[in-house]
Structures are given as structure tokens and as C-alpha cells.
Amino acid sequence: MSVKKRDPLTGHQTTGHEWNGITELNTRVPRVIWWFILVTHLYALIAWVLLPAWPGITGYTKGILGIDQQERVERQVADLRAARAPWRDRIAAATVENIRADPDLSAKVAETGPALFGDNCAACHGAQGQGGPGYPSLVDDAWLWGGDAEAVLETLRVGINADHPDTRFAQMLSFDGILSRDEIRTVAAYVQSLSGMETGADPDRLAEGQVLFMDNCASCHGDAATGNTDLGAPNLTDDHWIYGGDDAAIFTTILRGREGWMPAWEGRLDLADRKILAAYIQDLKGQAQ
Amino acid sequence: MIAKFTVAERQWSLVLLVLTALAGLAMAALGAGDAMGVHGFIVLIVSLGLIFVVGGGLFAPEPTEDRRRAYYDDPIKLGLVLAMVWAVIGMGVGDWVAWMLAYPEARFDAAWSSFGRVRPVHTTGVIFGFGGNALIATSMHVMQRTSRARMAGQVSPWFVIIGYNLFVVMAVSGYLMGVTQSKEYAEAEWYADIWLVIVWVTYFVLYIRTLARRNEPHIYVANWYYLAFILVVAVLHIINNLAMPASLTAAKSYSLFSGVQDAMTQWWYGHNAVAFFLTAGFLGMLYYYLPKRANRPIYSYRLSILSFWGITFFYIWVGSHHLHYTALPHWVQTLGMTFSVMLLVPSWASAGNALMTLNGAWHKVRDDATLRFMFVAAVFYGLSTFEGSFLAIRPVNSLSHYTDWTVAHVHAGAMGWVALITFGAIYAAVPMIWRRETMYSWKLVEWHFWLALAGTMIYVFAMWNSGIVQGLMWRTYNEAGTLQYSFVDTLVAMHPYYIARAIGGLLFLTGAVVGSYNIWMTIREVGHEAKARDVPTDSEAGEPAVPVAE
Fold it and tell me: Start and end of every Cytochrome oxidase subunit I profile domain (chain B) (predicted)?
């Protein structure tokens, strides 16, 4: 073909300059480019007329549509809020039991709960509320502060060891210096025996552990070690553990103490949201079992 | 290197090096215990090493010939090699952070390896390390050839290249130590920024002086673009980095701007870094190596003028499209949006001009992977500038912003356009500069091409999908009128795309490694007939002669 010929396609003139073997054709700007310029500039002109665009000395051109992004977003938020108000007001007024009993409202809980829980709670309590080391499960029967809806709602409102003025306080103090390491090991073995774990400790040692427990621990965890929901002290006779039930974990708990931190949600989630969550936790529990 | 200096130049270099060594010593002493001290040591060690190099050649015989008769390509060699070194580092780190996003535990459990520190190592490594060295080196090649004049300076080209790399090393090592100004693509702290200003002004003067010496009546288009790149990057860098150091002995400063003004200044800088670093500079590259390789005249000189002035004028306005739906006043957003749309014309005019230049050379595009690199780069340039203008339209942006769509867009530009044009230019330049017949292996160039193209496609498609899925999930409402998905749900949905992206990146990185090997073997290949690409030379330094006027 004509590849060897110089510029076989256009036959256009070069500009007459050459740089290190490179030349340029003097081809006219294709007409499509001018059209393209026209269209994009028209778009810009129209946008400038319609929307806020050019600054002046004392302000800027507002545009004939009179759109302002701030006002617009506020209106959209208000509209959305108004659309949700009917059912949210009903949820805010109802008890958690009534919400769960009402098919309409419990459908809303099923729709709204997952994203609410996923965005606010899952990072600590797990995607299904199953908990993890340091964070209690919300779907078992072991409760620090009680599992009835009122107690859960209160926990959500004020948090645990949080910055809310009414916050719940829960402190497992450090027994470093109060008990010797050996005593700690002894009472730890006793604690393990309570939930039926095989500890390998002889009965004398367990009895010794029980005495230590009565003297040091029962005030919070109760004589039978079944916990105290007024103090957020967990039941030690079941096999649910926040920090772990093996020797090392229990030893560390007693030696160093524990103080879990659960944020307060009043001010961040309104009453309806907190009720939805309290109801949703129950749903999650139903799914887990 | 030193043998080609006059004694006066050697002495002058020594003085300069002693000064930088002293500056390094001062930084090391005053900044002890801070990242600044570490940087002082780096400066000191580099300066001392170079003092030995220069001192060792101090008493070698002077060059006798008239150096003006030959081109000066030695500094370019260093620049090209460093570009490939940074390519492997920058892309390697990039792929690592890509895996880290899919598997967050894929890191050493130490502060330096946290995502926030390693990510800027990637961005700085590829943009400034790889892209910057390639731009500086090719600009030195192009300015001499298209001006038919030797570079105006014997020491300053070395100063520019070595000094620039010192900046990049300080920036990157600083990030790992936790140093950052928190300004994207301008993370390096105040003393590194000041150093870059010195280097950059030297570069600008070098370029202008070489152009002033030119033996051609007109200035070729490639030089317009390179010059726009150097000049505007200087302005951007200085203004965006205006800051007050918290202390003169530590790497911490406070920006002169605050609030929305700071955001606007940052994105005026950020988008014009895209415009003048990642576009104008590489268009300069395209305008020389593409017609040279295709052996075709530029399609239209008039189109070149239109697109050059269009690009320089419109780009300056569009930074605010990074801040749609923020505290930035609405009118600034409208201006950014409309100028972005108007910008599309000159961008496409440039891409079209490049593609039309290939008319009559399509068989070469088919057969020659080097030219194909440049062809595909021009196509990606066209695609990503279209996408950019599209994403700048506010309603579109409300879906795309903060999602991986932006990441897809950036990488279509960075991998598809910037990196591919650079690889094409380097494969064209390396045989010219080392005066070899061809590259060591054309098959490896083919391999590199297909690895790079496949890597880019996988990357970009994965991030498009991920971004659009993510954007749609964020805005999905259920019938109750609340958001359907939690943030974690979107992460779960994005995970497979993140793995695909990391695989795409791995292919691209592999291509860069293959390319580095090929370049290294081309350089090492001695014994072959040395071929002067420009004009046969009688220069005793073996440099290609500057051709005399016809």
C-alpha cells in the first residue's frame, strides 16, 4: 500500500518546521470540535443562568432556579423525617413487648434493625450480636444488667462506665496486692469448679477457694456466685464468659481487674431507635437459638 | 561523569556538596530524636558519598573538546534507571496495600506498616518517584533534540535529578516514621518542601536556558507542555505548602490555610497536579516519542494549539469538583462542574490529535509493542478525561464520590495513561540514549504490554463494579424510609472486588519488573556495534553530536 509515501491519507501540507525529524501537518481543526465546543459551552452557560455561579463584590449570582444546597438538604431531611414519623412515633410510645406483638411495628424493626445494629453495635458485639473477647454476647441468657427490655433500654441510654451522668458503673477491681498469686490461683480454681469445669484441684484447695470467695468476691458476685444485676457483676456459674474461662484468662481478670466500656447512646440515637435495637436484639436471640 | 566536568565545575560541585553535607549535619544534630534527624543523616550520607565520587575525579584531565558540539545524555541515564527503580518500589507497595485492604491482617503488626503510612509511600513512589523521574529524564532528552542544542549546564542536570530523588526519599521515609502534613499528594513536611523548591527552580532555569540556546526557529509543542508542567507545578507546590513550622528542629508545621479555604487550596493543588504533572508533562512525552516512533507528522498543528491553551486555561478552575456537596459554597461547585465539562473538548482534541497522527502507521501499532503502549495510553487518556468530566457533574458525583469509582477513575488515568505512555517512551528512549540497535528483547516488551494492559483492565473493572455497588448500597432506602445497608454490609460486598484489584495490580507490577529486567539487559549489552541514533559523532566523550543546520 501507500505506507512508504509521505502522508498518503490527508495530502495536507506541513507547517514547514522540523524538529529532530518530527514535522506537523497544518490540518484544519475538524468541524466536530467546534460543535463540541459549542455544546459544552452552552451547557456551562445554561448552568450559570440556572444555578448559583459567579461571584461579585458583595455576593454571587443566585441563579433563576433559586437552588441552595444547604436549604435543599435540610428540606430533604425534614421530608424524610416527616415520612417516617407515623410509625416512629408509635414505636417511641410503645413498650418493647407491644412493639414485638404488633405485626406492623415488628416488620419495621425487621427492616430497620439490621442497618442500625450493623452501623452502631456490630463493631463491638459482632455482626449477629454473638460477642467476642471483651464484648458480651447479646443473644445468650447471661446478662450483666438484666435481660428484660427495660434493663436493656436503660443500658443503651446511659452506657456502662461511659461519660453519661447516670452511667452504669461496673468494675471488677484488681486483686493485685490484696490476694497473693497463690490465693488468686486457688480462688480461680474454685470459680472454674462452679461451672462444672474439671480443675484438677483437690477438695481441700476448693474449700480454701470457697472461703476466699466468700471473703472477697461474694459481696458483688453473690454467695452462690450467680451474679448481681444491680452491680453488673456476672454470673460465674454458667459457661458464658466475656473475657474467657481458661486458667490464664480468669487469673488475669482477678489479678488485673476488668472494666468494660459501653458507650451511652442517649444523644446519638433517639428513643425510637433505641427501642428498635432493644427489640431487634430479641429477634437476633430468636435467630441464634 | 566527572571526567566531563571542567576543574572549575568539579570545584563548584564540591562546594555545593560540602554545603549540603553541612546542612545534613545540622539537621541531624538539631533534629536528633525526631524524623528530621534521620533525614539529616540521609542527606549527610548522600552528600559524603558524592563528595567521594567528585573528589576521586578531581585531578583527572580536563575535557579538551568543545562540549557544545555534543548532546548531554549521562544525567538522563540516571533519571531513567531511577524511574524504573521507583516504579518497582511504588507499584510493589501499591499492590501490598491493595492486599491489605482485602486482608487487613496482611501487615507486620507495627506502626510503620499501618495503611495510613504505607499508602502515601505508594502514591508518592509512583507519582513522584516513577512519574517524576521519567518526566525529568525525558524532558532533558526532548529539550535537547527538539532545540538541537546541548543542555545549558554541566552540573545542574545532575543536581536536579539527584536533588529531586533526595526529596522523594525524604518524603517516603518520613511517612513511614509518621511524618505527614495530611495534604494528599503533598504530605512531605516543610524542610523537604523547601528543598524541592530549590531543585525545581534550578530545573526551570535549566530548561529555559536550553530553550534559549536552541538552533531551531520555533519551539516544538512537546516543550510547551514540559514548560507548563515545570512552571505550574512550582506555583502549585509553593502555594499549597505555605505553612508555619511548629519548630525549626522538628518535622511538624501548620498550614497557613484553614477550614474550607484549606480544602479548596488543597484540591486546587491536587487537581492541577493531575493537570500539570500527570497530564501536561506526559503530553510532552507523547508529542515527541509517538510521532518519532510512528514516523508520522503530527496530525494537526492547529489542534495542538487549541488543546494546549484549552487544557492550561480550563484545568486551573476545576479543583472544586473534588468538594461537591461539602461546606464549599454552592457557586464554587457550579464553576468547577461547568469548567470540567468544557475541559473535555481540549482533552479529547489532544487524544484525537495523537490517534490521528497514527493514521498511516497502524501496521506499526500492530507490530511494535512500544508504539502500542503509546497508542493505548492515548486511548486511556481519552477515556479517563471523559470519565473525569462526567464524574464532575454534581448529580453523578453524588453517586460516585467517596466510592471506589474515584479509585477506578484515578487508576485508568494513572495506569492506563500515565504509566503506559511512560513505558512506551522509555522503551523508545533507552535504545536512543544508550545507543543500542533495539531493546534487549522485543518479546519481553510484548509481555510487558499485555501484562500491563490486563492488569489495568482487571483493576479498573473491579473498582468500577465495587464503586458503583458501594455507592448504590449507601443510598438504598427500604420501605420504612431508613437506610437498607450498614457500612459493614458494603465492605462484605466489596471484598471480592478488592481481591480482583490486587490481582490486577500484581499483573501490572510483574510487567514493570519484566520491563526493568529488559532495560537492564539492554544497558548491559556491551560489545554490540554502538550506534549513534542522532548523527554520527566524532565527540571523544562518545556523546551524540548536535547536528548542524542544513
Answer: 1-550
SS3 (DSSP) at A27: coil
Helices (H), B150-213: 156-176, 190-212
* Inter-chain CB proximity B330 and A40 less than 8 Å: no
Cross-chain residue pair A54–B331, CB shorter than 8 Å: yes
| CB-CB under 8 Å, B304 with A3 | no
Of A30, A37, A51, the CB nearest to B334: A51
Residues in chain B, how many? 550
pLDDT band, very low/low/confident/very high, at A13 (cuts 50, 70, 90): confident
Do B89 and B125 contact (CB within 8 A), yes or no? Answer: yes
Chain centroid, CA A37 distance in Å = 49
3-state secondary structure of A109: helix
- Assembly ipTM: 0.89
Cell reading at B183:
495534604
Of A19, A69, A108, the CB nearest to B220: A19
Q: Are strands B243-245 and B253-255 parallel, antiparallel or unpaired?
A: antiparallel
Whether CATH 1.20.210.10 fits B74-524: yes
Nearest-Cα distance to chain A for B257, in Å, is: 21
Structural domains in chain A, sorted by start: 1-67 (no CATH), 71-166+262-288 (1.10.760.10), 181-256 (1.10.760.10)
pLDDT surpassing 50 at residue A4: no
Closest to B338 (Cα-Cα) out of B394, B411, B376:
B394
Distance, in Å, from the CA atom of B424 to the CA atom of B293, rounded to the nearest integer, reads 10
The neighbouring-strand residues paired with B477 are B483
Residues in B closer than 8 angstroms to A23, CB to CB, are 297-298
φ, ψ at A244 (rounded to 5°): 110, 145
Q: Estimate the crossing angle of helix B190-212 against helix B133-147, to 10 degrees.
A: 10
**pLDDT per position as a tens digit, B218-259:** 999 999 999 999 999 999 999 999 999 999 999 999 999 999
pLDDT mean over B17-33:
96
Q: How far B314 CA lies from chain A's nearest CA (Å)?
A: 12
Question: Is A221 assigned to a binding site?
Answer: yes
Taking the C-alpha atoms of residue B25 and residue B37, their distance in angstroms, rounded to an integer, is 9
Question: What does the alpha-carbon distance between residue B182 and residue B191 come to, in Å, rounded to a whole number?
Answer: 15
